[in-house]
Amino acid sequence: MIEVKVIGAGLAGCEAAWQLAERGFAVKLYEMKPLKKSPAHHCNDFAELVCSNSLRGDRLENAVGLLKEELRRSGSLILACADATRVEAGGCLAVDRYGFSAMVTEKIRSHPNITVLAQEVTQVPQGPVIIATGPLTSDGLSDAIGEYFGNSKYLHFFDAAAPLVTLESIDMEYAWFASRYDRGSADYINCAMSKIEYNEFVQALATAEEAEVHGFEDKNIFEGCIPVEVMARRGVDTLRYGPLKPVGLRDPRTGLEPYAVVQLRRDNAAGNIYNIVGFQTHLRFPEQKRVFSMIPALHKAEYVRYGVMHRNTFLNSPTLLDHTYADRRNPLVAFAGQMTGVEGYVESCASGYVAAVSMAARLKGEPVPDYSRKTAMGALGYYISNEYAINFQPMNVNFGIIEPLTERIKGKANKNLAIANRALEYLETMRKEEQA
User: Fold this and answer.
1) Domain extent for 269
2) Is there a single domain that holds both residue 365 and residue 429?
3) pLDDT per residue over 321-354, tens digit each?
4) In this structure, are 260 and 375 located in the same domain?
5) How confident is the model at residue 298, as a pLDDT?
6) Are residues 81 and 206 in the same domain?
């Protein structure tokens, strides 16, 4: 039985290990927890969700919804566990974070072809190997990867986690349960703000004292995860057109659309802890409590976790990796997860899946499957490997990187749905060809 090493037991590493094991390979999965943890790690289970429990939209008209459906139909371990531990969140796929991680851990540890080794890896092993150590790769392995690629420069950005508050501490006199446009069930707590309250809040937020973060500069922030205080500094209405937008919501006290709305999303299956949506921050903890208490519904909020900033590291993938996440020089050394420049939990899972399936095909001497730009999974791989990319930055899946339709379809939702259906048909064709 051929042995393959997988380094890192996050979403990408667990998905890669599972797909290889299911295809008959002996997998050695290396994970440095619990012996050593990064600043973002809090529990000992695998596939830990550190920023939010939401795996985002689940509709096919949404690119991440398409990506999840592609993974479901492809036999993804991560999506199977996510669906099994799902909690209601309107049109999003959200999970009980701890239940999800526990299930992934149990599945991995109980697979007869997977051996888990609790140790830190500080050298790039000889292939076959998939390295999926995430955006917080330890300094030892980070340096080793740099040496492996001839000291090619890493790129750096900062990521952020939003605060969590208890349900019982939210003042529901100023809030109500609803989903935007009444889609799905009423799973969000909406905290209304008047114009005066909002303007005072933005002013306080923009001038609040930040925690010290080495090397932090506004221009280096990944645009998909901007700290809320940075948004406040960009203009008084920036937040109202971003995470505090009131569109599609009506305050039952007035029957009118509020001036601004802070949304809270359930963070666990019990429903007693809520995430302040879009409030990634690197303010000092006392400042978070002071400023966020200016939101009427949160004036007595109890925080079970304050927002934090993390250092994230990713490869200059367009010059180093191909569309299967493999080293262009040696395809039996591959990478997966956010360190490749895919951004997001679901995207990380997809990269682990593609890297593993491609590695398995190479080791068996079979043709490497081409998911192509017609699928969300394939489009991500081609995005991170685009040799013509200028100023390469991490990317969430979106319809802009998927191959466009040849025919013109009226309406954005209709066009996106047509792209999604084409992607799923393409996957089905691939499956039938593989069986044949």
Assistant:
1) 161-309
2) yes
3) 999 999 999 999 999 999 999 988 999 999 999 9
4) no
5) 97
6) no
